[in-house]
Amino acid sequence: MISIDFTICGVEELDRELDGRISHVVSIGDPGWPENPALDRIAPGRVHRFRFNDVIAAVEGHDRVPAPKDIVRLLEAGDRIRADDPTHLLVHCQMGVSRSSAATLILLTQEHPGREMEVADRISKRRPQAWPNSLMLELADAELGRNGGLIAAGREVRRRTASHRPDFADYLRGTHRRAEVEELDP
Question: Which sequence ranges form a coiled-coil region, renumbered to this chain (predicted)?
Answer without folding.
Answer: none
